[in-house]
Design a protein that fits this description.
- Helix content is 41%, strand content 16%.
- Helix 12 links the parallel strand 10 and strand 11.
- The termini are far apart.
- Helix 15 packs across helix 16.
- The chain is globular.
- By secondary structure, it is of the alpha/beta class.
- Strands 1-4-5-15-10-11-14 form a seven-stranded mixed β-sheet, with helices on both faces. Strands 8-7-6-9 form a four-stranded parallel β-sheet, with helices on both faces.
- It has 18 helices and 15 strands.
Amino acid sequence: MEIPYKIYLEESEMPKYWYNMRADMKNKPAPLLNPGTHKPVTADELSHVFCNELVKQELDDTTAFFEIPEEIRSFYRMYRPAPLVRAYCLEKKLGTPAKIYYKFEGNNTSGSHKLNSAIAQAYYAKEQGLKGVTTETGAGQWGTALSMACAYFDLDCKVYMVKVSYEQKPFRREVMRTYGASVTPSPSMETEVGRRILEKHPGTTGSLGCAISEAVEKATTSEGYRYVLGSVLNQVLLHQSIIGLETKAALDKYNIKPDIIIGCAGGGSNLGGLISPFMGEKLRGESDVRILAVEPASCPSFTRGTFAYDFCDTGMMTPLAKMYTLGSDFIPSPSHAGGLRYHGMSSTLSQLYHDGYMEAISVNQTDVFKAAEYFARTEGILPAPESSHAIYAAIEEAKKCKESGEEKTIVFGLTGTGYFDMVAYEKFHDGKMDDSVPSDEDLKKYAAMLPKVD
């Protein structure tokens, strides 16, 4: 059977339910802990930070499927179902017998997969009667998606953008402002925690951990506001499962069974969403697909982090999560994959990695951009730096197939486009991009500062 270049689902075939991987996990992710008492956080405690319905989703380890509200499905139809693309041109260029597919999430105005969860979180905020929400953003993909979702529901949106990205990506910032969001470089003098971080790290370029602290403080001190997050949390992986569910439905149409599934990894939203139904099959013993997470060598939480309880933010305002972490005080180098500059990893994905259900590698920045350029020249899409980590690994796996002669089926997530990342591409082309990797001594120092939890 001939496989089309793009496999599209009909709108009627779009998933009506999100899938919760935790329901099929024998070892559930460790619970979030109250940092003061070290006891599991309650729904009441979390409701001061998050919307009520999102708190329920966050704490639910047993419900396998959550119905997607009709209003969210209606919004999804503006840009979903997203295509699953057979990378025929890339296969030919590589001369590989491997069959390569990518799920393209960049064909919406926000430019990435982040809109899948942004619209859901904005919907629940509106349902609760809130005035607005606060958040952080790294590369700006999440901030852009949330500002678009808030404009749709007429909600106020306050975004704290990691300072280095705020300066590197002024046009991403302007898209957010066009949708009506206020955008503040973080850390800032606007919050108490921002002032503390600046005093401790003067001149810092910031991190997602810093920006989370500021957004949480702003939400909890502003009446009618709640904090929303674009990655890491269980609720976000739940919403993003639509990526994997659509991918599986498209593959099933042609009876295609993937051998390897590859996703870039920062906090876990894209990776968790892409792998969800395939991981479910693996957890239930129905398949043995290989799952590979790819992270930046400058922020290698999976490959060089510690599996321990840690704060989700630098200002230590959030609950403690058990995850692979570099330490909440760790501030990575100002790499250009801003969406992957997070010190920790989703608790759900951390547990799955710890239990051996998936693998992880870390990649240097210059190698990632070589792969991005190769892909752009071959498949015609300029990829986001984050997505290009997955592209790099997919190309490497395809090269191995060329050597071995194996016709493996490789599926990777193309999370978004890189048209607002031209400063990064410029530095790469001008030879001004370096590969900054933390030393063992640095990582030991931050690991020693992790909270002591019995």
